[in-house]
Amino acid sequence: MPLSRAAVYPYRRSGRVAARAGVRHYRLARYQDGTMKLICKPFVFLRHGETPLNRDRLIGGRTDVPLSEDGEQQARSAASILARHRWSCIAVSSKLRARQTASLALPGLPQLMVPDLRERDWGDLELRPYTEQTPYEQTPPGGEAWDDFCARIIAALNQLLQQYDTPLVVAHSGVFRVLSLLSSGSPYGPRIGNAVPMWIVPADSPGGWTIMPLAQRDEG
């Protein structure tokens, strides 16, 4: 039986986002030239499997929803690629969809929950159609500023990369937008597929990054 809208989309919060006490800490990820730097070590990124919000093309950041049936199957399908590797750490966003994906893709392995890898808070745009989404650089009403989101994600990744070699990061499409910004200079482009492992590796050029499917890297 399909879930009711109330069950699938459990809440909609309005109003101003609470003050972020950690913003000053996140800004430590910025260098003197104002840019944000990621430690130059490789890792693998996995977006969570499909959720009902993805299926219905609705914005979902802070909204905590489970995987759809298709999303569960997508996560299981990623296992064949991920099982080829030994992971120093499986770092997972605190959101249910990411935790479920990691559990289905790599059953029985321990997870390190990293709350700061959670998706961007889209404020009053939560649960609205994709067509109403504002440009990334604009702060949605009641939501999280793009610069604050980028700084939070980069700080969380840097903490992981300081401690682990080639970790697996299970998170969200917004996190991948930050990685795209570092790689290409723009967060825009096609939305990353659900549960497709991606190889993130420093490029030959200083500060550059190369992103490719992990399966392609393994075959090469």
Automatic annotation (TrEMBL):
GO molecular function per UniProt: fructose-2,6-bisphosphate 2-phosphatase activity
UniProt keyword Hydrolase present: yes
UniProt-listed GO biological process terms: negative regulation of glycolytic process; regulation of pentose-phosphate shunt
SUPFAM superfamilies: Phosphoglycerate mutase-like
Catalytic residues (positions): 48 (tele-phosphohistidine intermediate), 119 (proton donor/acceptor)
Binding site for substrate: 47-54, 97
Keywords attached to this entry: Hydrolase
Claim: Hydrolase is one of the keywords in the record: yes
Protein origin, superkingdom: Bacteria
A single cellular component GO annotation: cytosol
InterPro entries: His_Pase_superF_clade-1 (IPR013078), His_PPase_superfam (IPR029033), Phosphoglycerate_Mutase (IPR051695)
The protein, known as: Histidine phosphatase family protein
Native source species: Affinibrenneria salicis
Lineage, opening ranks: Bacteria, Pseudomonadati, Pseudomonadota, Gammaproteobacteria, Enterobacterales
